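Researcher: We are triaging several targets before committing to wet-lab work. For this one, the compound of interest is flavin-adenine dinucleotide. I'm pasting the protein sequence and the ligand SMILES. What I need is the predicted three-dimensional arrangement of the protein with the ligand bound, expressed as structure tokens, so it can go straight into our comparison scripts without reformatting.
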Amino acid sequence: MHIEATADAIIQKGTVCRIGLVDNGLAYMVPLVYGYDRAGTLYFHSSPRGRKMDLIRAGGRASFEIDIVDDIFARDATFPCTWSVGYECVMGEGRIEVVEERRRKERALTAIMERYAPPGEWTFPADVTARTAVLALAIESVTAKRTLKELTE
Ligand SMILES: Cc1cc2nc3c(=O)[nH]c(=O)nc-3n(C[C@H](O)[C@H](O)[C@H](O)COP(=O)(O)OP(=O)(O)OC[C@H]3O[C@@H](n4cnc5c(N)ncnc54)[C@H](O)[C@@H]3O)c2cc1C
């Protein structure tokens, strides 16, 4: 899916993605580090066990949210209603699946590494890749919102 430029920039810039899963009628939100393929897929890694993995295997869909908090500012510091938080945020939905194929898992793990670690060649031992669960969330819809200080002046 084509990701519109503002959303694309925020996803590239973010640090933590919260995925939302439905558990017995309630949202179960889980913060995760992520990789991003600009064709429209978010990647995650995880233990193969746990509540989130059970819900993903049972459901196949997830919502997600990424935000970057900029700063707290006020147009008039003496007046409470003029205080704001500057932020950039995306919210969206998509299909989430457990990636099983080894090369695709390695590409996803590389995509995660590339966002957090200095540039380098990453190799993943086969036993580590085998015992790590990798998730792909194919974005189907996403919206972006920014309330930065310079945009409100
Ligand atoms: C900034 C950040 C980045 C993270 N990145 C990753 C990542 O890349 N991969 C990854 O697998 N995990 C990551 N985690 C941990 C992640 O949020 C979950 O704790 C973890 O994935 C286990 O989820 P689970 O559903 O299997 O929990 P389970 O082990 O099944 O949890 C059982 C219960 O513990 C509680 N619980 C679980 N996680 C949390 C939590 N984070 N905070 C408070 N209570 C909790 C819930 O009540 C849950 O029902 C990250 C956490 C943070 C804060």
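Researcher: Any quick observations?
Model: The pocket of flavin-adenine dinucleotide is lined by residues 16, 30-33, 44-47, 50-52 (CB under 6 Å).
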